[in-house]
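Handout, section B. The chain below has 273 residues.
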Amino acid sequence: MPRFVFLDESHTDAKWHRILSVGGVIVEAASVAEVESAWRDAKRDAGLAERDLKFSMTWPEGSGQRLRMIETIPTLPLEHAVVALLEDFRPTRMKLFDKEKRGDLYVHRGCFEYVLQRLCAPQYAPGPSGVHLVAFDNGDHFPKLDQQYRGVHGHRWPLPWGGHWPSLREVGYAESLASTREGALNEIADLVVGTVTRWAACRCGIARGKQIPERAELDRACRAVLHLFPHRHGTTPKQWTGWSFAVHTRELTGKEQLKGGLDEWLRDIELPF
């Protein structure tokens, strides 16, 4: 069955913890129409029918509309989700003097490749039964991401313990990155990756002793999408980190928090309070 992967990028500011990310949702092609119809109905019921939704947009204060839409996601026939989170510790001199490295794309391209790698892994790989598509929001960065996608399309992914995961081509993904703009699956992908990224930054802030009033809402939002992220096979206790939540830090600074804390924080919210 052909599958579509809808990806988007997200970031948090430095107030809690600076994280840049790429992630999104996977859906069987046969379920797309059902997802879109249900999402339109949910937007209408929430009074948002005329708006293009983004996690980071200005939502009516106190309306609860963002959380309401995120808590609609578990009712949709989505298959999986994946996200790569990178803690951003680029030094100021890099951001000031190197035009390429100071842009968020410098980090997002690493996130993008980690996500593509996961799409070839056993818990995500559908096998070559049809042509599968990876779609990315058509923003300013799209041409470079498309070039990156083409460059790794035939590349097998070596594993640190030996062996490899197959390439995107072997798994059955199309050679080109699809370009999308607006629409239900774009909005859902944005809400999922935005939720996880802001929640992770919030938890990093709490671990440093910050009081964050948003915490309860973000815990609920992350719990609503958590079922879409598969655990790693054969591990005790079960783990997300390094698998469906791919966590990396490019330069060790002593300030890293995600790899050491994320699984514990996720288990903390896995079940309703």
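Note. The first strand starts at residue 3 and ends at 11. Compare this with the example in section A.
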